[in-house]
Specification:
Elements: E1 8-15, H1 18-30, E2 36-49, E3 52-66, H2 70-80, E4 89-92, H3 98-105
Antiparallel strand pairs: 1-3, 1-4, 2-3
Protein name: Divalent-cation tolerance protein CutA
Family: Belongs to the CutA family.
Organism: Novosphingobium organovorum
Length: 108
């Protein structure tokens, strides 16, 4: 069995409002898939959707996790996200502070 990947990872996803982003963050942290979720209010999104260009007010959610939890976090976020087709992006961090890595490795 391979050792857990200790690198840091991030996930970004926009939500319709702060309340739904906060609810998702709480769920994912409680389930141990993320160690932290930062809700970023007041985003204005301009996007192409179903043949039109639209604008909407949204709240962003940035989640912090370990690289070995990234795929599970993304999959779970897609199931609890209120959008029918949520934008969910995840990436492994090239560099992280040692204290951050130790915190990410700790118990949920």
């Amino acid at each position: 069995m391979a050792a857990p990947d200790p690198r840091g990872a991030l996930v970004w996803s926009p939500f319709a409002d702060e309340a739904s982003a906060l609810a998702a963050a709480r769920t994912l942290v409680a389930e141990g898939l993320a160690r932290c979720g930062n809700v970023v209010p007041g985003l204005t999104s301009v996007f192409a959707w179903q043949g039109t260009i639209d604008t909407a007010r949204e709240a962003g959610l940035l989640l912090k996790t370990r690289a070995d939890r990234l795929d599970a976090l993304i999959a779970r976020l897609e199931t609890i996200h209120p959008y029918d087709t949520p934008a969910v992006f995840g990436w492994v961090c090239d560099a992280s502070g040692q204290g951050t890595l130790e915190w990410l490795a700790g118990p949920s």
